[in-house]
Amino acid sequence: MLDTGLKILVVASEVAPFAKTGGLADVAGSLPKALAVQGNDVRVVLPRYRPIGDYTTVTDFPVEVGPRKETCIVRRSHIEAKWFHGTKEVPVYFVDNYHYFDRERLYGYEDDAERFAFFNLSVLPLCEEIGFRPDIVHLNDWQSGFIPLLLRIRARHNPAWNETASVFTIHNLQYQGRFPRHALGLLGLGDEYFTPGGVEFYGDVSFMKAGLLFADVINTVSETYAKEIQTPEFGEGLDGVLRKRSGDLYGIVNGINYHEYDPSSDPRVFKTYNSNDMSGKAENKIALQRELGLTLSHEPLVGMVSRLVDQKGLDILLDAMPEILSKPLQFVLLGSGDERYEKAFRSLTSAYPGKVSVTTGFNGILAQRIYAGSDMFLMPSRFEPCGLGQLIAMRYGSIPVARRTGGIADTVSDYDVSTGTGTGFLFDDYKAEDLVAALDRALERYADRETWIHIVKQAMESDFSWNKSAAMYTEVYMEALSRRGRIERPA
Ligand code: ADP
């Protein structure tokens, strides 16, 4: 039986503030803090990429990656969790190796299979080196997908690992870590795993599939996405595997860090504000218009902060753009990703000077200024596992105009004129005209000042902190432990 808190190891390929390309980093940086504050002993592991410089060196040990003998250097830093007694330190360990991780970008290299095989192979020995035997290893996305299997194999030689349960979280099923067959050899695994019922996926090896098959419990980042991915439309070829494991598959919506994302104290915005006094929000809008060279106008400012990839609904948005820009509004986009989208949006700025601003690149400060300075926030996603953009937007009083899919469906409620309730304007079908119709409904309400302030207040006062979701993760961890026979739970 367990006494107090759990010993939890969170493993991810990106963790804010150390390395971030998307929402996974936010989650891997903020969930551990929430779990620590709730009384658990939490440690975090990620690779040490080039820009991460502030650490101490703990130890090193050899790792065999197929025929290569490599060294894992263990570095250490921490993140600070704020709670009412003060702060708590969550230790962060880096798996370091100059050859694999001292590079410009996080992913997208020819040898990614080998780089992340090395990462997967390093994590459990790292625990042994630092003397931390977790109750739970919590793996995230394909980059840590083989650890549940490596855990079961390691337990054969070191039975203490039998006590450890694994939880695998899908943050985005589209990115699967699919590599040629030789990846198996790099992981030190034999051909017996290379079967359709194993980690083989259409002739390749799939890191994601390995996580889905071998973790004790699986979850994804919203209840709706948990259902969607069991269908061929959203299942990315793995819906069959997910249907087989549907009894072990949970949906837990992400939270956001309420200390970091707080309009009443955010140092990145021009003027702080809260739901009872929104005068500061109006000042943010003017300052943003100035910063981006937009006309100082009272028209609604529609913002968007997004990776520029197919998932985000940019094709229907581009189709809708001429009609959207014929309306009395301003449009601000911050995003980076596919060159063709970057180009298409950039070309709008010269056609609509003073009305449209497009910034390409990754910019955490401008992102917050857009959340704070915009009236509406666009998210026409084709699919959205959870989505953090709409959560941050609501917290900053920018009203989502978004597609009802995945986590958006679970976190934004459509405004209902008859009851006056709702925190956004949603559309269902993936069509440019339906996006425009949702935006039109929002613009109609915006014209009525009193109603709009009421909607903004409802959005700002919704609770998307980690409290509830971290407690749900603890439940899932307990479920995983019961699968290992560590605890008994009522059926
Ligand atoms: P995803 O993980 O699919 O990219 P999410 O909505 O879950 O989408 O998370 C996106 C996160 O990344 C949010 O915190 C958003 O503000 C941030 N973000 C996205 N693009 C940029 C950018 N170009 N500059 C700064 N922050 C960005």
Tell me about this structure.
- With 491 residues, the protein is an alpha/beta fold.
- It has two domains: 7-255 and 467-483, Glycogen Phosphorylase B (Rossmann fold, 3-Layer(aba) Sandwich), CATH 3.40.50.2000; 279-463, Rossmann fold.
- The protein has 17 helices and 18 strands.
- The protein has helices spanning 23-37, 98-101, 112-130, 147-157, 183-186, 207-214, 223-228, 239-244, 279-292, 314-324, 339-351, 364-373, 389-395, 406-411, 432-446, 449-460, 466-483; strands at 7-11, 41-47, 56-65, 68-83, 86-96, 136-140, 165-170, 178-179, 200-201, 204-206, 217-220, 249-251, 301-308, 330-337, 356-360, 376-379, 399-403, 425-427.
- The strands form three sheets. A nine-stranded mixed sheet has the order 3-4-5-2-1-6-7-11-12, with helices on both faces.
- Helix 13 links the parallel strand 16 and strand 17.
- The protein is globular.
- 49% of the residues are buried.
- The model has no long low-confidence stretch (mean pLDDT 96).
- The chain binds adenosine-5'-diphosphate.
- Adenosine-5'-diphosphate (ADP) binds at residues 22-23, 26, 305-307, 334-336, 362-364, 367, 386-389, 392.
Brief rundown of the structure:
This protein is α/β, with parallel strands linked by helices. The protein is built from 17 helices and 18 strands. The chain folds into two domains: 7-255 and 467-483, Glycogen Phosphorylase B (Rossmann fold); 279-463, Rossmann fold (3-Layer(aba) Sandwich).
